[in-house]
Write a structure and sequence with these properties.
With 621 residues, this protein is α/β, with parallel strands linked by helices. It is 39% helix and 18% strand.
Length: 621
């Protein structure tokens, strides 16, 4: 290869200086301007010495040349010989060229700096802020809930890092969430898996970090890589909450995140909630009320005065809060046996409107024995359940359902999904039949004889985009509801949807329960972002091995038609080994946002219940 010439080296050096940006361009313009002024001044001193003397020699000529270069319009006021005017004209023409380039360079540099700022690449200088890494539909729910939680706080900040344009993120959040009140949003563009981008978020001073499962292929791989990047970074490590889409990847995610990560198994929680809702109408509404910040929140409270007393006695501890369980050295137990003795280091799991309202009661009125209905164990019976549709979590739903039903129960799966019925070996109680059926076709639905079933589960078809899948689900729900009205049939309907915005549309179908899986996971992530220490509590709440949420007929606990205090319902549930946490009024089931659910009610206030109303309890199935 031939040796580089002097011209090539000079060109290479010039290219490198020009690549340094606006500052280098301005430097070159300054040098060209200096050369122009010196040349013009020298020509003036040499060719027109008389004019040079009239302008005070070199200093005056240099100043005159500078003014002509910067302000070409000054030539209009010049007077003198032809050579002098020609030289000044040259200075003005050179000035026009230099000033034009300078204006263009400054304009381009300023535009580039504004674009750089719009991209969100500057470091977040905050402390005590919540960091959200990634982008998904759950983000809107998380931001909305954190805004509610921080409504009374000044200086609250939510910082978001995602592979999106900063203005696009801000516009999307503004459109879906609306006014954020005292909470300030800071969006940054970058990849959550890149350590250099993570450094923009000031993670060492953050309060908590939430890792979202992205809306792309193999989302758990991105979550695990983000957890690895967080674990390997230097500095303090705040608590990390992450959503994992598939249970198969929980072990890998736990290993990647280390001891400081709280993982949420999205598939598992959604499946459990669908099963529970199909068994007892209203479960999804109660769980969403427990998870959001609109009503009561969960707290851990230590009461030394209760040491040595039983859990049953602790249920009367607070006037404006409801006890749900205990956290001791062995972990959290919701609805422990009534005779469980509270230890000196145990904490109460409490549901209250605000932690400032958690105060000991001066005394409570005794339960009204006349209103308590004797406990009657229901006779177990085989059930028939219809599942319309199929998706990736359907097999898990069926396995969980198998643990609830009595032997001899039947589940019919009706779907045109190619994977329908796969992965269902070793069921203990259920007999599963698979039928070919398009759930949106009225005639196909009528051929199933839906009236013979007690429960119907409508699943979202994962072969379609979420919006289209929700549309198909709505069509199926409308067909089922019309069939019920026409044929006079009665069966519970629980459906799975993706978009919370479709809930209002689905309410027209009067479905008994609508499980918005993304919303539920978003609510849970928001709760853990605000209170990471409650991870054990929510883990128990969605674990079938312990006590779960059940809305049960009020007539099984107290008499209807006469006023009864909630304290009496608490006592009636306690005698069944259950913890009463609220009730649901059937007449208000269609009224958002709580759909008739009242959690943590005033224990002394009398309420007249009617048949169809429910008592919400924590109990074992």
């Amino acid at each position: 290869m031939s040796k580089a010439t002097v011209k090539e080296r000079a060109r290479y050096w010039f290219d490198n200086t020009m690549a340094k940006g606006t500052a280098a361009l301005i430097g070159w313009l300054a040098l060209v301007s200096l050369v122009l002024i010196v040349v013009i001044s020298a020509l003036t001193m040499w060719l027109t010495p008389d004019e040079a003397l009239r302008h005070d020699g070199w200093p005056g000529v240099l100043w005159l040349s500078l003014m002509h270069a910067l302000s070409p319009g000054k030539i209009a006021g010049d007077a003198g010989t032809a050579p002098f005017l020609a030289i000044m004209l040259g200075a003005s023409l050179g000035g026009i060229f230099i000033v034009s380039i300078l204006v263009g360079v400054l304009s381009a540099g300023l535009r580039g700096k504004i674009e750089e700022l719009r991209k969100g690449r500057s470091r977040v200088i905050e402390s005590g802020h919540t960091v959200i890494l990634g982008w998904s539909e759950q983000l809107y729910t998380i931001v909305s809930e954190l805004v509610k939680a921080h409504a009374s706080q000044r200086g609250s900040v939510i910082a978001i890092l995602a592979d999106k344009d900063k203005p696009t993120m801000e516009d999307a959040i503004r459109a879906r969430v609306g006014d954020t009140g005292r909470t300030r949003l800071v969006c940054r563009t970058g990849s959550p898996t890149e350590p250099a981008d993570l450094d923009l978020m000031s993670l060492s001073t953050a309060r908590t970090v939430v890792v979202l499962s992205p809306e792309k292929d193999d989302p758990d791989a991105h979550v695990i890589k983000t957890l690895l990047a967080l674990a390997k970074r230097a500095g303090d490590h705040p608590p990390v909450i992450a959503a994992v889409a598939s249970s198969r990847n929980m072990a890998a995610a736990r290993l990647a995140g280390g001891r400081g990560v709280h993982l949420v198994d999205s598939d598992d929680i959604a499946a459990r909630l669908i099963v529970q809702s199909s068994r007892q109408s209203g479960v999804s509404v109660v769980c969403m009320d427990l998870l959001n910040f609109d009503g009561g929140e969960m707290y851990l409270r230590r009461e030394p005065s209760l040491a040595g007393r039983s859990y049953g006695e602790a249920l009367d501890t607070y006037a404006t809060a409801t006890v749900l369980g205990l956290r001791g050295p062995g972990g959290v137990v919701l609805n422990p046996p009534p005779d469980t003795v509270i230890g000196t280091s145990d904490e109460l799991v409490v549901l209250a409107q605000d932690d400032s309202l958690i105060r000991l009661a001066n005394g409570t009125a005794p339960a009204d024995e006349r209103q308590i209905v004797p406990a009657r164990a229901p006779e177990p019976a085989a059930e028939r359940t219809l599942m319309l549709g199929w998706n990736g979590r359907a097999a898990r739903i069926i396995r969980y359902l198998d643990g609830y039903v009595t032997p001899g129960s039947v589940l019919d799966v009706a779907s045109d999904h190619p994977g329908a019925g796969a992965g269902l070996a070793h069921l203990a109680n259920l007999t599963v039949n698979v039928k070919e059926c398009d759930g949106t076709d009225r005639y196909a639905l009528e051929s199933l004889g839906v009236g013979v079933y007690q429960h119907v589960i409508v699943l979202s078809d994962d072969r379609y985009a979420p919006r289209h899948a929700d549309t198909r689900t709505l069509m199926t729900l409308l067909q089922l509801r019309d069939m019920q009205a026409t044929l006079g049939e009665k069966y519970s309907i629980v459906s799975e949807m993706h978009d919370e915005n479709n809930r209002s549309l689905a309410e027209v179908t009067e479905a008994d329960d609508i499980v918005i899986s993304d919303t539920v996971i978003g609510l849970l992530l928001a709760q853990l972002a605000e209170n990471p220490h409650l991870a054990e509590v929510f883990g128990q709440l969605f674990d079938s091995a312990g006590s779960e949420v059940y809305p049960r007929p009020v007539e099984n606990y107290v008499t209807t038609g006469t006023p009864v205090a909630f304290r009496t319902i608490v006592e009636s549930a306690l005698r069944r080994g259950e913890t009463a946490i609220g009730y649901r009024v059937a007449a208000r089931i269609g009224e958002p946002p709580h759909y008739g659910v009242v959690l943590n009610p005033d224990r002394s206030r009398a309420m007249t219940f009617a048949p169809g109303d429910s008592v919400i309890v924590l109990a074992e199935h």
